[in-house]
Design goal:
77% of the residues lie in helices and 0% in strands. It has helices at 8-26, 31-47, 53-61, 67-90, 93-103. The radius of gyration is 18 Å and the shape is elongated.
Length: 104
């Protein structure tokens, strides 16, 4: 393998990704399962405060609804995503069920 020198932020992101993939391999999860969990975690951060990007999009669509009401409405979805993340970490084969059914 060629010797690559990367800038510190890129190198640390690469190291973190490699470490997470090794850990995912230890729990017998494939890269697809890891990707599913990563997307769910990213979506939960976009949905919840302090970022709440989806909340601001909804506020732009429905300006007469108070922000508090919109934030209060996201919690059931956030808890459902949290439960799904826990289930996928406990049973990684759930993330791979549909790809295995489709592609064998």
């Amino acid at each position: 393998m060629a010797d690559l020198t990367l800038e510190p932020p890129v190198a640390s992101a690469e190291a973190a990704t490699r470490k997470a993939l090794r850990r995912a391999g230890r729990i017998r999860s494939a890269a697809v399962g890891f990707g599913v969990v990563a997307v769910l975690i990213i979506q939960s951060t976009i949905l919840s405060p302090p970022v709440g990007l989806n909340v601001f999009i909804v506020k732009g669509i429905v300006p007469d609804v108070p922000m508090y009401t919109i934030f209060r409405g996201i919690w059931p979805f956030w808890y459902a995503m949290g439960l799904l993340i826990v289930l996928l970490l406990m049973f990684p084969q759930l993330a791979l069920f549909l790809p295995h059914r489709m592609f064998g």
